[in-house]
Every structure is written in C-alpha cells, then in structure tokens.
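Researcher: I'm comparing several assemblies side by side, and this is the next one on my list. It has 550 residues spread over two chains. Same procedure as the others: predict the full complex and return the structure.
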Amino acid sequence: MSTDATMPRPDKLPWTAHVATYLYPTLVTLVLFVIWEAVTQAGWVSPLILPSLSSIIHTAVVKFPLLMQMSGITAMEFVLGFLLSVAVGLPLGAMIVYSRPLETAFYPILVAFQIVPKAAVAPIFIVWLGTGLSSKVLIAFAIAFFPIVIDTVVGLRSAQPETIHLLRSMGGNPLQVFWYVRFPNALPAIFGGLKVASTLAVVGAIVGEFVSAEKGLGYLVLVANGELDTRLVFACVLMLTLLGIIFYFIIEITEKLVVHWHVSARQLETLGGGA
Amino acid sequence: MTASAARVIPIHHAAAHTQEFVRIKNVDKVYKARGRALKAVDNVTLDFREGEFVSIVGPSGCGKSTLMMMVAGLVPVSAGEILIKGETIRKPYTDVGVIFQRDALLEWRTVIENILLQIDVRRLPRSKYEAAARALLNRVGLGGFESAYPWELSGGMRQRVALCRGLIHDPKLLLMDEPFGALDALTREQMNLDLQRIWLENRKTMLFITHSIWEAIFLADRVAVMSPRPGRIATVIDIDLPRPRRLSVRESKQFGSYAALIRERFQAFGLLNED
C-alpha cells in the first residue's frame, strides 16, 4: 500500500522572523514619534494644534485616574454594544439563511437601516433612552451589527453542496446539518464580521457620547476641546486607540483558537516562514 | 448477504428479479431552468444485484452523477421509479456510503473525527466504532494519521479518508461519483487497486461513476455506457476478467476488446473524432 507524500507541517518560525514581525513596525512608529517630538519641540507648530508627544504622555500620566475612569465607562458601552450585536446578528443571519419569507421580509429593511447614517439617528436614541449607558450601547449596536449579519449569511451559505448531501445520506436532519457543517464552516466569515464590528462598536460608543453624555472618553474629548486642552484630547485619543487594539486582539486570539484549521490561520505561518 | 432472503417480495414483481438489489426503472430527470426544461436523464433502466460492482461510464454532463444522486434519494426522479431492496426511494437512502469527487472532508475535524462523523450523525456510540475507524485507516495505508487535519494531507490521502468514512458504518451499498477524477494518474491507479482490494474483502454493492473507460472496465463486473445528454443507457457490457485484476490486465486482448466496444459507442455518439 502506497502512501502519498504528506504536506509537511509548517516548521516553527525562526526567531529572526519573530523579531522582524515586531521590530519593523516598532521602528517605524519610533521614527514617526521622534519626528513628531522634534517638530513640536522646535516650535514650528502651535501646541494648541499639535502638542508634543512628551507633553501628551505627561498629561496622560497626570490625569491617569480620570482617563482610566472614563475608559472604563466607554469600554463598558462598546463591549455591551458589541455583545448585543452578536446576540442579535448571529440568529438574524441564521434566520435569513433558513427562511425564505424572513429573508424577503427582513433583508431590504436591513439594508435600508444600514444606509441610514447612525450618527444622524443617535440623538433619537438619546431621546428614547436618556443620556446614560443604554443609549450608547444601542448606538454601538446599531453601527456594529450589520457586518455580523451579512458575514453570518455569507458564511452559512458557503457550505459545499456535497457536504450537505453527505449529511443527508447519513440521515442527518437540518439541525445536524447546521451544527456539523454550516455553522463551523461559517466561523471564518463570522469572525471577519466580528472584527469589523469590534471597531465599529467603538465608533458607536463615541458617537453616542458626542451627542450627549456626562462621562466617557468621548465626553472628555468634547470637554477638553472646549477648554482648548489639546493635550488632553490627544491623551483621550491615545486611550481610545489602546482600548480598540486590546478589544480587536481579544477577538483575533479567540479566532486563532476557534478556527485554527482555516486557511487564514495557516497562511500567516507559511508566509511568515517564507519571509 | 442474507438480506434478499429476508426481504418481502411484492407480488407483482416477477420472480426473475428477486436478486436485484437496486432497480432503476424508466427513470427520467428533467431540470427546469429559466422557463426551459432540460432533460438530463432519459428513460434509464438498469438493475444490479447485491454484491455487484457496476460502473457507469459516460461523457461529462451526461447525467450520470444525477442518476447516482437519484439512487441515493438526494435528488427526486421526474418520472419512473428507483427501488432498493424492493422499496421505492422517496427520501435519502441511508444504508449507504457516498463518496464524491470532492472529498467533502470537514476541515475542522481531524482524520479520525471525519470518519466518525458518519457515526455522530447517525447517533451511534462512538466507542463501538473508534477501533474500526483506526483499522480502516490502517487498511488504506493511513495508520498514524488519525489526528492529522485534512489540509495536511494530499488529494489521494484525503480521498482515502473519504472512503473510510463511507465504509465505517458497514453499509450495504456504496455510491461513488468520480471519486478519483481529481487525482493524478499514478495516484489514481493506486486508488483503483486499493478500491478493488477493499471491495473484494467485503463485496459491497457498488455503483461507480466515471468518465474513464479504463477505470470503468478495470473495476467493474458490468459497465453501463451512457450517451451524451439526455443520458440514456446505450449498452451494458459484462466484464469477464478474473479477479483480483492487476494493472497489466489492461494490455490483455480481452480488456482491449471491451475498451474498443465502449470507444465505438462513444464514436457513434460523435464524441471521439479521430480525423
């Protein structure tokens, strides 16, 4: 009995590849920071327009407790908004795939809803739900849930017809087809949607805070801007960026664990190995 | 193979048919697309006995895959009737192993779990079949690959796993739709030898779809030649070659005359033009 040659597992990356992965972007960022610092220290730009990096960091350190408190509030808003969009988006996507009448009824409304600029309807949500947490969560949800629905639909529809025939010849019912084939097969697409949604949820929370709020990083940006405290505005933006990156990476790590079998997870290894 | 003895034979069936395991009676398949009716299968009648290896050979698009799907109960017939063990097929027939050209392995399951999918979907106890799955893997030369993922395997190895998945529940009937069509010539020859060996061990009733004249003759007890669309059975040829057949059987005079017979049929359809 012959056995064809196996595809070799991609070897562990050489340490130099790992270093390059982190070193190059770090170097580029550092160079940009040095230029920024030099330009602002030289006094070519008014600190009101662009404060120096060191003064922003100084502000961030001095106002750290305030920034952390505001970050916590904003993070709560976008995480809850994101979770709500997952809780609604996944079942809605599945319903659209499984029910022709539901698809006919809901799909055009979904698309129309997506076209409505969410920033424009944000004040309405504030009127409905007040200036507290719930209105921000709803705005974050409204912005974030669409890509989850769309990618769930695309993912669930991408199963090979042969695989579904196979399950039916095993006596599989539609629920089994869903759990054994359609859902796992959709996971790479769903995670694509989750990543987009994670960044959109942050935008949603800030939009909500811009419209009306008494706390949160978006609120702090407005206050600082009103007081011409450009350094604090930048410090807030810095915090928001950090929060967004952390949130995105949590989803990416989850993806790596859940869909480790997918091409997207493997190519990183092989491409990295070839570099 | 005592199933035919236990079977209740409907009175209107002639006694001469008692041995027939699968009966395809005057089957048509008409697809309706954009208001036009397209006849894929035209008045096909073909019976095969329990333990018989039947190949259907025909040009691409002649409806031979459709015919197999109808036998599996995965596609309804437009006219006529298909009976397995005397029962009309109206829904997916489950005492069957189906193997497609695309292996339809689940990328997120390891090799052994892909085989056990058959067991999971049928809600059979895994513990009773795990040893059998390992034994099957050994028989097809894939011992030691139990915990590999499909992407780590070559096309030939993947198709072997699909074969194991089709055999693990010990079905009475195997349906194979151009299973080796996507493999390179050398791997394909090996797969033919392996399939013959496995078939000789348990003599399952086999319906094997191919467009390779050589493969059809090499494997089958009988070869049914199908015409281009709409597919009809043009000839059924009994292959009287001793088993186990070796690759060199191709050079025998008898093999050559079978091949010539089929080729002449194809030429009569205007398929092979040598001028």
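Model: For your comparison table: Confidence is low (pLDDT under 50) at residues 1-10, 268-275 of chain A.
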